[in-house]
Amino acid sequence: MCMGDGLVARVLRCSLLLLCVEPLLALRRGCEFSITHSNSLYNFSLAAPSRKYPHGVMSEDGFYKIAVNESLLLYQLCDQMIFNHDQPRCLNCQGCGGPLHCGMQCSALVSENIGGYFVCTTIGQASNVNISLIDRSNPEKGVIVKMFSIGPKENCSLSVSVFCDSTKVQVYNSLTMSGSCDYATKLRHPCGCAKVTSRHRKGLGWFGTLLIIVLCPFGGYLFIGTIYRYFFLKIHGAQAIPNLGFWCSLPQRARTLLRSLVRRLQGFSRDGRGSYAPVRDDRDFYRPASY
Ligand SMILES: *[C@@H]1O[C@H](CO)[C@@H](O)[C@H](O)[C@H]1NC(C)=O
Ligand SMILES: *[C@@H]1O[C@H](CO)[C@@H](O)[C@H](O)[C@H]1NC(C)=O
Ligand SMILES: *[C@@H]1O[C@H](CO)[C@@H](O)[C@H](O)[C@H]1NC(C)=O
Ligand SMILES: *[C@@H]1O[C@H](CO)[C@@H](O)[C@H](O)[C@H]1NC(C)=O
């Protein structure tokens, strides 16, 4: 009873923990992308921390900011935005935190000056992300992170091209608009570079397969033999292993065989005719070691 209760409690605790951690995992997973291309696995982990970039591709400030013409684009990759300073002030911030917490509940926001007023449009949500390659034929170029926002009047999106650059971070002050509400920008970042794993060495190869085919029946024979001898013949201890004497004598046999082989070869090279060395008696194999 006690043990059962403990188990139930543990299972409950685990499920609770999983439930709490799940949204976080989902966001993280949303920024991982892997693809196989010409026998290699390209693994992009945009949000993975490194020594030099503890936030991965995410902006340390909590957001990236781009100003073009009278428009302001604010976005974060792989997460929602956070504002400790420069919080956007604009009308119409529903969909991204409302007037008091504007910018805090989405991943991308455009603020436009319309007749002297700044009006905000939510263009990306952290939960709606799609990652694809910049160049389908060359995964080393980087990835496009596309965020979506599904609104009552219109659907919007922001595509951020993250170009692989192993040396530096560069945020371009560029914003292009296509369609009614689809924006695009780009940056260069080391996190846009894939971890490449060659797939050649995966799998066992024919030799490994052969080894398994040979070893499995042998292991099965030893196992079943031991069980049989232990339970039915009531032979306990190391003696339960079938043919123990034979296995133990194996090293000795190998040595003797090697020795006789060497002797034969020596004889062969001595009289140039070979194979006239006296054939050893089989009893030799069982003689105790005398070296
Ligand atoms: C990609 O890399 C991440 C972290 O480096 C790892 O957790 C993940 O399992 C990898 N994915 C694949 C498909 O190898
Ligand atoms: C900025 O202005 C230029 C010319 O005035 C226009 O062609 C371009 O589309 C504008 N960009 C945005 C993002 O509105
Ligand atoms: C997400 O990207 C894949 C290609 O990588 C594409 O086939 C799919 O349509 C995209 N989804 C959306 C909602 O755009
Ligand atoms: C927005 O997208 C949703 C699902 O992708 C679709 O059902 C809806 O019709 C779209 N709305 C507009 C205004 O295009």
Automatic annotation (TrEMBL):
<protein>
    <submittedName>
        <fullName>Uncharacterized protein</fullName>
    </submittedName>
</protein>
<dbReference type="InterPro" id="IPR018939">
    <property type="entry name" value="Autophagy-rel_prot_27"/>
</dbReference>
<keyword id="KW-1133">Transmembrane helix</keyword>
<keyword id="KW-0472">Membrane</keyword>
<keyword id="KW-0812">Transmembrane</keyword>
<keyword id="KW-0732">Signal</keyword>
<feature type="signal peptide">
    <location>
        <begin position="1"/>
        <end position="26"/>
    </location>
</feature>
<dbReference type="Pfam" id="PF09451">
    <property type="entry name" value="ATG27"/>
</dbReference>
<dbReference type="GO" id="GO:0000139">
    <property type="term" value="C:Golgi membrane"/>
</dbReference>
<feature type="transmembrane region" description="Helical">
    <location>
        <begin position="203"/>
        <end position="224"/>
    </location>
</feature>
